[in-house]
Write a sequence for this structure.
């Protein structure tokens, strides 16, 4: 699924499952941003002010010229995200953001929001 980036976009992650979602970064929703010379990073934390990183998000550039990238987490990474629920609907909620840095050093927060992680039943 390809989703346009916006100020807030919430993610749903299933613990123990591979997570993959594509996005397109477009200026004012119409003109794709060229990602060719940019670097990126993303993190999941329990809160924005919390010092500890729950999980780093892998960002893969899919089509740099058209601003398309993907957020990726392996099954092992999602399995390591703590949950306290006993059923799939007793999910844990975290926060995340994704930033890109251009060659001049300007940083752009492209995505941000909540990450809801439902607990894995099959171990």
């Amino acid at each position: 699924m390809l989703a346009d980036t916006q100020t807030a976009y919430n993610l749903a992650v299933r613990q123990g499952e591979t997570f993959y979602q594509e996005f397109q970064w477009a200026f004012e929703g119409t003109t794709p941003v060229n990602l060719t010379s940019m670097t990126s990073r993303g993190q999941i934390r329990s809160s924005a002010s919390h010092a500890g990183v729950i999980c780093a998000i892998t960002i893969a550039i899919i089509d740099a010229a058209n601003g398309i990238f993907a957020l990726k987490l392996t099954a092992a990474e999602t399995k390591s995200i703590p949950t306290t629920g006993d059923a799939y609907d007793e999910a844990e909620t975290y926060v995340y953001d994704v930033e890109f840095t251009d060659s001049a050093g300007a940083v752009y927060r492209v995505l941000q929001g909540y990450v809801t992680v439902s607990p894995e039943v099959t171990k």
